[in-house]
Amino acid sequence: MGREKIIIIDYGSQFTQLIARKVRELGVYSEIINFSKTQKLRKDKLLKGIILSGGPLTATNKKTPKLNSEILNLKIPILGICYGHQILSKKLGGKIKTSKKREFGRAYIKSFTKSPITKKFFGTKKNSVWMSHQDVVSVIPKGFKKIASSPNSKFAIIANENKKYYGIQFHPEVTHTTNGKILIKNFLFDICKMRKSWNPKNQAKLLITKMKKEIKNEKVICALSGGVDSSVVALLLKKAINKNLVCVFVNTGLLRKNEANEIIRTFKKKFRIKFIYINASKLFLKKLRGVTNPENKRKVIGKLFIQLFEKYSKKIKKVKFLAQGTLYPDIIESKTVTGSPSSKIKSHHNVGGLPKKMKFKLIEPLKELFKDEVRKLGLELSLSKKILYRHPFPGPGLAIRIPGEVTKQKVEILQEADFIFMNELKESNYYNKIWQAYAALLPMKTVGVMGDSRTYEYTCLLRAVTSVDGMTADFFNFDKTFLQKISNKIVNSVKGVNRVVYDITSKPPSTIELE
């Protein structure tokens, strides 16, 4: 017997997988398909509802992707989000126009009419949502009614209750839309009449079974960083293939202070996994000499990683696969998973930074998951909480927290500043309240005064954000006293820094990392 499902049709939104994740969180199985591959849906008897994603294109352009008429012939509930809301409206006779004022980030909508889609969504008649659009629905189709509006979007929520078609201009799937999950829950259970059939235990079993089938009796090298992602991949592989697994840890010289020793101790002694340690600190710094472009940095690091893996795989012999802890946010910022027209934000060293030709076949079991889902998997696999709840750390390491050229001196300065910041976060009980925090070294020197003497040293930037999945984020609102304390400690303890600043930008419009 099959499993009931929701299909998310991808039009290239940066948030498409967030929709799938929210649906899975609610206990319902979901799949993402490209907007150009919807012809098979009419044969799917287990399909109970469709969600149309947002996208980077404009619905006012005649050449942009449209809604396939076959989807309407299925006669099942449809929820259009952002671009999906616009093309659903347009297909059914509504009108779209470019708004005079764009809405990006937080906005407020007001309730106008009650609807099953907004049950328990509005605490009062006003709600905070996350917008990301420049086009708006200016005329709604026949049979629809206005449910809610914002200052710049008259039809922020619309509904045709008879046909069970709904359009939402904002993004209920992102964590910064208040009660956004309730809207999706209402669509799944009150409108589509779904039943719960999905949980992390199922996910772990499916991933292990899938890897066994793909890898068979071949050997696998697992790129181990010591973070939660690569650690979960290593434990999944151990359960799937065990003896044919070798974990390789490359010390790039771009890690946090004392990190290499901690990783060696954890995986050699505790997990008892076959383990190779490569100290390539000098080599990475040499290759990065003179490189200032962030994309080039990532590609240099990615290429060197692969060269080292290929070199050391010869010692193991007959290695066919390279396993990585790539997550969905890594992929969606580097390229689109389904081939839809999403925008490339930046290359990740283990995605867009990899060379086109390499001897290994990639295994990326977590590539459709988010950090919170990976942590749930880690709990199923009995991974220690110290690793599970460690803040995300980028594959390229401190190289992308040093805008401009990376040098040994800059790395050492940053390692000391970051070490102080992390320790203070833990001692002040802030660490577990924050999604990700780090120190960065800005590529500028400023004049300061210490002990009546002039200094000319670097500026240290501190960043701390709250998030669930890394796709959207807000800065963490520290107490002023803490910021003063950490600033004084870094300036007084780290030679080479005479100024500390705190980044208060959300994502979007910025990304969490600097490069």
Protein traits:
alpha/beta, Rossmann fold, 18 strands, 515 residues, five-stranded parallel beta sheet, 14 helices, GMP Synthetase, Chain A, domain 3, nine-stranded mixed beta sheet, 3 domains
Strand order of the largest sheet: 2-1-3-4-9-8-7-5-6
Main β sheet profile: 9 strands, mixed
Please tell me the overall pLDDT: 87
Helix amount, in percent? 25-40%
- Counting DSSP H or I runs of 4 or more residues, the number of helices is 14
Radius of gyration from the alpha-carbon trace, in angstroms: 24 Å
Low-confidence stretches: 343-353
Whole-number count of domains:
3
- Report the count of strand segments: 18
Distance between the termini: 47 Å
What's the architecture of the largest domain, going by CATH? 3-Layer(aba) Sandwich
CATH superfamily of the largest domain: HUPs
Class of secondary structure makeup: alpha/beta
Shape: globular
- Beta fraction of the residues? 25-35%
CATH topology of the largest domain: Rossmann fold
CATH class of the largest domain: Alpha Beta
Explain the overall architecture.
With about 525 residues, the protein is an alpha/beta fold. The chain folds into three domains: about 5-190, Rossmann fold; about 200-390, Rossmann fold (3-Layer(aba) Sandwich), CATH 3.40.50.620; about 405-500, GMP Synthetase, Chain A, domain 3 (2-Layer Sandwich), CATH 3.30.300.10. About 30% of the residues lie in helices and about 25% in strands. It has helices at about 15-25, 70-75, 85-90, 180-190, 200-215, 230-240, 260-270, 280-285, 295-315, 330-335, 370-380, 385-390, 410-425, 480-495; strands at about 5-10, 30-35, 45-50, 80, 95-110, 125-140, 145-150, 155-160, 165-170, 220-225, 245-250, 275-280, 320-325, 360-365, 435-450, 455-465, 475, 495-500. Strand 7 (about 145-150) and strand 8 form a beta hairpin. Helix 5 crosses helix 11 (about 370-380) and helix 6 (about 230-240) crosses helix 11. The longest helix has 23 residues, at about 295-315. Mean pLDDT is about 85; it is low at about 345-355.
